[in-house]
């Protein structure tokens, strides 16, 4: 009886489970032949660049073992950069170089590594060690994002990112993912990062979830994670909304970052976005998705489609929620 009552309560609140996500949204709206567009970060980046959408600059691509010799030439103009698998998932296989030191390289965590170690990492990526399905992969070398200073007090190392779930070009829910000491500086919830709900209308953060528990403060900085106004929120929403045309996929998770100099950038797209975003927002996806579907059905009867700006306005009009007054984060305290 307890399980039955729990299930009824979740259903009443519109909480989406994995079976509903797969059957009613992923399989229905995402055509299989379009998956490579989002599963391969190089293809995503190339399409975004062609469409004039902001992404971290691509420095070079390594496709074969023979191409590894080109690595030092590719990175010669840069002191910092990122090496990542084109078809990786969950942040695995990514190497972030923050600086040079005496002919070697300093990672973002401060570790000094040699060229040979980077060469070995590139070779591992090419072999498919980090790729979806274990298939041979390609390596991309790109601009290293420098997080906006607003995140210094509510994040531990690494780069925070923003996940926005988009249905048929309409944003339906957003979450800020904050790295922690436990996550190793990665914005990956399964590895111990924090998920913080974000109000779609205002871009103000809500309560957070960490290790499946509700929290109000970052475990390492001890600063509140709620009530923070994310800069240029309309810019994030506009980028996420435009990814429907970019990918052709109807149900996607758009991952974005806020660079100190370049502003909002698209990091990657996900055709099978996770469901923890509902915990971070204390709200279910189902009701919001149904509202979008009913709206699209009404538009079809009228014989019209909406622009990016109109879709963005619809989501911000219907999917906002009461939030605490926005604050400016305090100076970071010493990690606990």
From TrEMBL:
Q: Which PROSITE patterns match?
A: ATP_GRASP
InterPro entries linked to this entry? ATP-grasp, ATP_grasp_subdomain_1, RimK-rel_E_lig, RimK-rel_E_lig_ATP-grasp
| Stretches the record annotates as Disordered | 317-336
What the entry lists under SUPFAM superfamilies is as follows: Glutathione synthetase ATP-binding domain-like
Q: Name one GO molecular function term.
A: ribosomal S6-glutamic acid ligase activity
UniProt name for this protein: ATP-grasp domain-containing protein
Tell me which Pfam families the record gives: ATPgrasp_ST (PF14397)
Q: Where is the ATP-grasp domain?
A: 45-300
- UniProt feature, compositional bias: Polar residues: 327-336
Naturally occurring in which organism (per UniProt): marine sediment metagenome
